[in-house]
Design goal:
With 294 residues, the chain is of the alpha/beta class. The chain has two domains: 145 residues, Rossmann fold (3-Layer(aba) Sandwich), CATH 3.40.50; 139 residues, 3-Layer(aba) Sandwich (Rossmann fold), CATH 3.40.50. The protein has twelve helices and 14 strands. The protein has a six-stranded mixed β-sheet with strand order 4-3-5-7-8-6. Strands 11-10-9-12-13-14 form a six-stranded parallel β-sheet, with helices on both faces. Strands 1-2 form a two-stranded antiparallel ribbon. Helix 4 crosses helix 6 and helix 11 packs across helix 12. The protein is globular, with a radius of gyration of 19 Å. The model has no long low-confidence stretch (mean pLDDT 95).
Length: 294
């Protein structure tokens, strides 16, 4: 029997820990609809583990204190990281996996003894979905890709696409960020909003901004005129999964382009992250099946 107690860290939503172990998703407002708790809790149940994932609304100022509280509690097994903390957490954890270090952002945390380790499963989750969208890894190699938005998820997707596509272009509201990422990955840079001269040469668009998210900016990162100059064979991948159909995907589908949202990426990255936090609890296929059912 576990004595229920409020989480001691400075978070913006009430969380009571009443299980032997627990996970958390840290973000600005994950309590308002993050999908990760549903997925992780289904996997915990399938594995017969007395654990729950809690959403924790955390400000940037309070993030160090929350991480310290999680580290001090051995019941915390790990969890997920949402915007806007994916990059800030890199400097707050005990160790960062090499892939996450290269990307410069983490979206997953897991405990290793007394240490908290950061990982990035966004890129791997997105890559599998994008490959399916365009017809496989070989087909992806022929694509000229544009990644719009270089926050934590965008950095991960761009890093995984680099070297796997014919040509990679990145765009971000802050041009200096795009320039730095392009130099690091051997990519090209485009202004934001992306102009028709660039889009006419692109046949894979990846949105990694929050534009079109139910809690983000309204509209689309690429407007209807921009979509109109994409080749007819182009594919549009939106990392957003709430709502299912963003304005970007709606306009792209109306044009007859291949489209996919971020729901599958959200599932795949969660499967990988769960395996790191609770190693050996379930096989990956069983974790995926439990999460998919949820």
């Amino acid at each position: 029997m576990v004595d229920a107690a409020s989480f001691p860290g400075p978070i913006g939503n009430p969380v009571t820990i009443a299980t032997g172990r627990y996970a958390a998703i840290l973000g600005a407002t994950p309590s308002k609809g993050a999908r990760s708790p549903t997925l992780w809790n289904a996997a915990f149940k399938a594995a017969g583990i007395d654990a729950v994932m809690h959403p924790m609304d955390v400000t940037a100022a309070d993030l160090p204190a929350v991480v310290a509280a999680l580290k001090a509690d051995p019941r915390f097994v790990g969890g997920a990281v949402a915007v806007p903390h994916k990059q800030a957490l890199v400097g707050l954890l005990d160790r960062i996996e090499p892939e996450a270090q290269r990307i410069g952002a983490v979206n997953a945390i897991y405990r290793d003894g007394d240490a908290l380790v950061g990982a990035n499963t966004d890129g791997a989750g997105a890559l599998s979905q994008i490959e399916e969208l365009v017809g496989g890894a070989h087909a992806l190699q022929t694509r000229r890709a544009l990644v719009v938005g270089l926050g934590g998820a965008g950095l991960a997707v761009a890093a995984f696409l680099a070297g796997r596509v014919t040509e990679l272009t990145v765009a971000n509201r802050t041009r200096a960020t795009a320039d730095a990422v392009a130099t690091k990955l051997g990519a090209m840079t485009a202004d934001f909003p992306v102009g028709a001269d660039v889009l006419s040469k692109i046949d894979l668009v990846v949105n990694a901004t929050t534009i079109g998210h139910k809690d983000g900016s309204a509209g689309s990162p690429v407007d209807e005129a921009g979509l109109a100059v994409l080749p007819a064979s182009a594919a549009v991948y939106d990392a957003i999964y709430q709502p299912d159909l963003t304005p970007l995907l709606t306009m792209a589908a109306a044009r007859g382009l291949q489209t996919r949202n971020g729901l599958g990426m959200n599932l795949d990255q969660a499967v990988i992250a769960f395996g790191k936090a609770v190693p050996g609890a379930l096989g990956m296929d069983a974790v995926r099946a439990a999460m998919r059912a949820a």
